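lol ok so funny story. i was supposed to be doing the assay writeup but got distracted and ended up predicting the structure for this chain instead. priorities right. anyway since i did it might as well share w the group, maybe its usefull for someone
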Amino acid sequence: MKLPFPDWILVTPVKVYQETTGENGISEELIFDGKCCYDDKTKQVLDSERRLVTLAGKVILKGDIYPDKEISGYVMFGEKKNAIFRTARPYNPDGSVFSTELELI
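and the output, tada:
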């Protein structure tokens, strides 16, 4: 059973870039260009080394934008650039990915 995604909340244009390190340095790949739900509410969380990190917001995208791969890189809102801190992929009851959530620094 798939839950219906509320498409009406997708209003903010966004570009998501994947950064990978290779022999020639860091390469960037555009993995998503479309609309998202952007929440610019800040909050503070602890990272893996128990340091306090202030998050700048959260981006919610419909479905799985980069299937079976880890997302690390940055998000562009026009000229504004935010790094991705953490990624989550909530699942539907049938096991498919409902959305991709990116927490931003």
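The longest strand covers residues 25-39. DSSP finds no helices and eight strands in the chain.
back to the writeup now i swear
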